[in-house]
Amino acid sequence: MGWSKRVKLSVSFAAILFFLPFHHETSALASEQVIPMGHSIGIQMELSGVFVTNDVLLNGDNWLRAGDAVEQIDDAVISNLKDFESVMATATSKQNVLKVKRHDSTLEISADQEAVKRLLPFLKDRTEGTGTLTYVDPKKGTYGALGHQIVDSSLKSPPTFRHGAIYLSEIEQIKKSTPGTPGYKISTIIADEDYLGTIQTNGIYGIFGIWNDAYKKVLAKPLDIMQPSELQTGDAEIFTTVKGTDVETFSIRITQIEDEQFHFVLTDPELLKTTGGILQGMSGSPVIQEGKFVGAVTHMFVDEPTKGAGLFLVTMRSGEKNK
């Protein structure tokens, strides 16, 4: 992907704190098995262009809005930040015309060169964050993670992207959750040359893509996929990472079962001592009951961080099948 090594990631994508609509999906075949993961991952996506991250006044009444895409400066096509920097470094005219895409419209905005140069801190051509790897399908060579769609926190929308990849990350520090204030992981991508997989789809049930066979060393034993009708209230467990790169097992209790989702409460004293509750970046953690793969942690209750909700794996995997 060409990005620098040891990328530090401290905040996950915006969608983790909000409930998404769930839809009933067909059940998995009883014979299907996938591998539960629980590894902390860094997510990097090369965007489909150069996007504005904040509302910025160029001059007069000419504003660029967060989410605008800068497609062209004068006659030069802008595909990434390097293009933008190169054009502005060699520009000789005191005035530039920007071609900007806003929603479904294309605008042309004239501005002086210095105002255009000042745009640079408010532009981005990639997005990144943290999450948890949910499963690997060893037969198909695919993976799923997060259990919800990536929504870029500055663009306020699911980003369009050219390329994307997930990487194994190492957790260096935990900021605890407290009622009203979600905690988060501070983690670092170990080596961006060794990606775990490529991102093919960013959908409402998670991110999905092709697994890198070079990472067979992180794979565990496949488990049967639990049907939603099999889930019972009571004890269960999650696989997740809160220290280094080690996946650990922690106890939870299933408290409520609905058609498309389930609710739970964290009960493991060691996990609660370390995290204070569910963290941003924990989304995607596998949920297991009676040796079967139930689904993935997807959301937390901000005012009660020990409580969360999960998505059934049979529903999550439909996002992979429909890519």
> Architecture of the largest domain, according to CATH?
Beta Barrel
Measure the end-to-end span.
22 Å
Strand order of the largest sheet: 3-10-11-15-14-12
Question: Helix- and strand-based class?
Answer: mainly beta
Number of domains in the coordinates? 2
Residues in β-strands, percent: over 45%
CATH topology of the largest domain: Thrombin, subunit H
The dominant shape is elongated
CATH class of the largest domain: Mainly Beta
Brief description of this entry?
With 323 residues, the chain is mainly beta. It has helices spanning 81-90, 113-117, 269-275, 313-316, 318-321; strands spanning 8-9, 33-36, 40-52, 56-59, 62-64, 69-73, 76-77, 95-102, 105-112, 123-137, 142-145, 161-175, 183-189, 195-203, 206-211, 223-224, 234-243, 246-257, 261-266, 279-280, 286-289, 292-301, 304-312.
Describe this structure in words.
This protein has helices spanning 81-90, 113-117, 269-275, 313-316, 318-321, and strands at 8-9, 33-36, 40-52, 56-59, 62-64, 69-73, 76-77, 95-102, 105-112, 123-137, 142-145, 161-175, 183-189, 195-203, 206-211, 223-224, 234-243, 246-257, 261-266, 279-280, 286-289, 292-301, 304-312. The chain has 323 residues and is mostly beta strands. The chain folds into two domains: 8-47 and 125-321, Thrombin, subunit H; 49-122, Pdz3 Domain, CATH 2.30.42. The strands form three sheets. The protein has a six-stranded antiparallel barrel. A six-stranded antiparallel beta barrel has the order 17-18-19-23-22-21. Residues 100-323 form the Peptidase S55 domain. Pfam families: Peptidase_S55 (PF05580). Residues 1-24 form the signal peptide.
